[in-house]
Design a protein that fits this description.
With 830 residues, the chain is mainly beta. The protein contains 5 helices and 60 strands. The protein has a 5-stranded mixed sheet with strand order 41-45-44-43-42, with no helix packed on it. A 4-stranded antiparallel sheet has the order 1-60-59-58, with no helix packed on it. β48 and β49 form a beta hairpin. The longest helix has 10 residues.
């Protein structure tokens, strides 16, 4: 059952989102569930020039049925994060890939996040801006490009391109095409160009009224007819490939697409791999809004554009017919070029960098220029350009010399942002100075007033309507005041935006808070129950997390680490979330076993009966500890545990504290007795031999011999400790087209025990009395971001989920919240 409503102008004005202009004839509809009860509906638009029938929201009614309600837990923001002297509170959140400042209102910014959708703030100049999510329920929240349409004089039309650009293995949502709004972001219409854009990774967009041009750098089917430049002449209803179609643009990879702010018909892009299709690699310019193209690069530029080596090219066009380009080869900046005549001729500039212990280090010490390169032209001075890279280098990095890595030559104290200002009017060898850190160290004129720096891994830079430099990176969004000199500073604009990429998380039932392992934002912890503010505990890239909140009454022991199991520690916290101390775990292998070979994210699991026991899943073997990780025994020689934010370990249950299930490759191994009982492969597991890795495993708390394992596409049950298995995936594939299952949790509830699974397109639940095969979407208000990890705490009846791009979310009183759903089914049937 659904209800259709038309929203009056008065209702729209009363909404929390401003509607500055509604096109004539715009029709608004929303789909509601039975009884027409809705929470946070998704709205769809039909533009005034459309002759099509009204479009209902793609939001399924299922989200609004009886059931529990997901509530965001943040972080929004993380305080004392891995930035330097940034006001307020050294804040970070998570990766934001692109930003669209309003063309004439400095307070309005739109942020396109890596996997958290599109956000808007209306008070960007405040110390702590308030942001609103705009696309939580759209088909994909992975945003690769976002631009205003310069032909709209009201500044209300934007187009976003869906693309996966996460630093976490480029994981993300489905590649569904574009999102277009002509209402200042209030409504968004999904466009796939009649299916042409499905599966294409959009790296740049250039909306121009009825014409929309996009660049594609990758596709699910990576063939020449799926990548390059595509163009629509009917506002996105249909698209056709421009590359290789007699337009002057060869087939190949296009990393970026930018427009001239003074000429709406002029666009720039680059092409690599063109030589593999009979074309020429190079820079290309269009003077007719993407319909036709001409090569404008010279021999020096073309020599750097090497197919298979060049993995990013970024452009910036200024207000004075000036164009800049940054060429990245093998992850590092290889060339910076400037044109003062609209791309007709080019001059090479210096490569920005610093000298560390006698060694020149460029903008990409981490070699991540394929994702982390930003460039923007100064809006006032035609000779000034700004370039961002990945992270700061340590003092001795590259020299081979021992010693402390920080501070480095410009005063950096940690791996924070790496950004520079260039001036083409200066002599070669002196064109770039640092845009961060000290104004007394390094190049003359470089630095900041307060030794400040944003987060590492820059993604985009733009100027807002007031002339402030806005930068996005893996820590969120920041402003640089007075960017043309060294008197300004970096400020956080993160406010309450919640874009954290969480791949692992754990709930602490003593403090009722969440801790998480995140991409590039370490291990942050929630300040207190119910708050969005978190604090950083371990920096770097976060590892797997675990909490022992039972072995020492009144004290929680939290396990955390950085990437590759670095700084693996247990920290101690009281019930008020006060820090009591910490100790590094020894990880000393005893009994002659092989040393642990850590993984980037090394899975760890505490024993459900005795949480002082730990399983650690190395890349080479499986290890067990009986003393909180200080000593380890190798129990699975040659049996690695699947890592990469997969956590396929289930360890201990009432009735058998020694029971152990692990996932290794596409197989499950089981131990049923105490050590030295071996791990034995379950030869009947349905996924074995299929090539799909086991993602997670959970034990029925009432029966150690009953367990559930998932791989990417299925859910499997054993009731005899792995001797036999049953596929209980049921309706997951048919009803939800399930994508990439990641985690599983078990909820005890008498005869109606439930399984919960998460994946890249939702969180789903099934009941024992229906054979765990009748799956439904769990709860209302869940964003459509990749749901990477689940943790259910039976004592608090709380379920938390970590989204890769949307942070942590929680359902409280989970079992109680099922009451209305069960009552409805008892009265009216399933």
């Amino acid at each position: 059952m659904s209800c259709r409503f038309e929203l009056s102008e008065a209702m729209l004005k009363a909404s929390p989102h401003p509607l500055r202009r509604l096109g004539r004839g715009t029709v608004l509809t929303l789909t509601l569930a039975a009884a027409c009860a809705v929470a946070t509906p998704a709205l769809a638009e039909v533009p005034a020039d459309s002759s099509a029938p009204t479009f209902e929201s793609s939001q399924t009614t299922e989200r609004f049925l009886f059931g529990p309600f997901w509530r965001p837990q943040g972080p929004g923001p993380i305080q004392d994060a891995q930035v330097e002297n940034v006001t307020p509170d050294n804040e970070a959140v998570g990766a934001i890939h692109t930003v669209a400042p309003h063309p004439f209102i400095p307070d309005i910014l739109f942020a396109g996040t890596v996997n958290g959708g599109i956000w808007k703030t209306r008070n960007a100049t405040d110390a702590q801006p308030r942001w609103f999510p705009l696309t939580d329920f759209k088909s994909s929240l992975s945003i690769g490009a976002l631009e205003f349409d310069p032909t709209d004089p009201f500044g209300l039309t934007l187009v976003a391109g869906v693309g996966t650009f996460s630093s976490f293995g480029t994981l993300g949502g489905e590649l569904t095409g574009l999102l277009r709004s002509n209402s200042g972001g209030f409504f968004w219409r999904e466009l796939d160009g009649g299916g042409v854009l499905t599966g294409k990774n959009v790296s740049g967009v250039a909306p121009r009224g009825r014409n929309i041009t996009i660049s594609v750098d990758f596709a699910d089917t990576f063939t020449f007819d799926q990548i390059g430049i595509f163009r629509s002449t009917d506002r996105g209803a249909t698209f056709a490939q421009v590359s290789g179609s007699g337009t002057g643009l060869p087939l190949g990879v296009t990393n970026d697409l930018v427009g001239d702010p003074n000429d709406v018909d002029r666009l720039f892009t680059s092409v690599t791999f063109a030589d593999a299709a009979g074309g020429a690699n190079g820079f290309y310019r269009s003077d007719d809004a993407g319909a036709s193209w001409a090569k404008v690069s010279d021999a020096a530029i073309d020599a750097l554009l090497i197919s298979g080596t060049t993995n990013n090219v970024e452009f910036a066009v200024g207000e004075h017919d000036n164009v800049y380009a940054a060429v990245v080869n093998a992850g590092r900046l290889a060339g910076v070029f400037r044109s003062g005549d609209g791309g007709t001729t080019w001059t090479a500039m210096d490569l920005p960098g610093t000298v560390e212990d006698g060694v020149f280090i460029g903008v990409h010490p981490g070699g991540q220029g394929f994702l982390h390169t930003s460039i923007v032209a100064d809006p006032v001075d035609p000779d000034i350009v700004y370039i961002g890279g990945d992270r700061q280098p340590g003092f001795t990095e590259g020299s081979g010399a021992p010693g402390a890595p920080f501070p480095n030559s410009i005063g950096a104290e940690n791996f924070s942002g790496r950004l520079f200002r260039g001036d083409a009017s200066q002599a070669a060898g002196s064109q770039f100075v640092h845009l961060t850190h000290s104004n007394t160290l390094g190049g003359v004129g470089g630095g900041t007033a307060s030794n400040s720096s944003p987060h590492a891994d820059s993604r985009e830079m733009k100027f807002d309507a007031a002339g402030s430099l806005i930068e996005t990176d893996d820590g969120g969004i920041y402003r640089r005041t007075s960017p043309r000199d060294n008197t300004g500073d970096w400020q956080s604009l993160n406010g309450n935006i919640q874009t954290n990429e969480q791949h692992d998380l754990t709930y602490d039932s003593n403090t009722n808070t969440v801790i998480a392992g995140t991409q590039d934002n370490g291990t942050p912890m929630q300040n207190m129950e119910g708050t969005l503010e978190w604090f950083l505990f371990v920096g770097g890239d976060g590892g797997d997390t675990a909490v022992d909140d039972t072995s020492t009454p009144g004290t929680s022991i939290r396990y955390s680490s950085a990437q590759n199991l670095q700084a693996f520690n247990r920290s101690f916290w009281d019930v008020d979330n006060n820090f009591l101390g910490f100790a590094f775990a020894g990880l000393n292998v005893v009994g002659g076993g092989a040393p642990v070979v850590p993984q980037f994210v090394t899975p760890i699991e505490l024993n459900e009966v005795d949480p002082t026991r730990i399983i650690i899943g190395g890349a080479n073997s499986t290890y067990e500890s009986f003393d909180q990780g200080d000593t380890l025994t190798e129990i699975g020689p040659g049996i690695p545990v699947n890592g990469g934010a997969r956590d396929p370990i289930a360890y201990g249950a009432p009735g058998n504290p020694d029971i152990l299930y692990i996932g290794s490759g596409d197989s499950v191994f089981v131990r049923t007795g105490p050590p030295p009982a071996p791990l034995v492969q379950s030869l009947t597991f349905p996924g074995t031999g299929g090539g799909e890795s086991v993602r997670d495993i959970v034990i029925d708390p009432a029966d150690p011999n009953t367990a559930y394992a998932i791989n990417q596409f299925g859910v499997f049950q054993t009731t005899d400790a792995g001797a036999t298995w049953t596929d209980v995936s049921g309706t997951l594939a048919a009803d939800f087209d399930i994508v990439a299952l990641r985690a599983i949790a078990y909820v005890e509830e008498g005869s109606k025990d439930r399984l919960v699974v998460s994946g890249f397109n939702g969180i789903f639940v099934a009941k024992e009395n229906q054979g765990f095969t009748n799956w439904k979407r769990l709860g209302r208000n869940q964003p459509n971001a990749p749901a990477m990890d689940l943790d259910y705490d039976a004592a608090d009846d709380a379920l938390v989920v970590g989204f890769l791009g949307r942070g942590a979310w929680k359902i409280s009183n989970l079992r109680n919240s099922f009451f209305l759903e069960d009552l409805f089914e008892d009265l009216f049937g399933n």
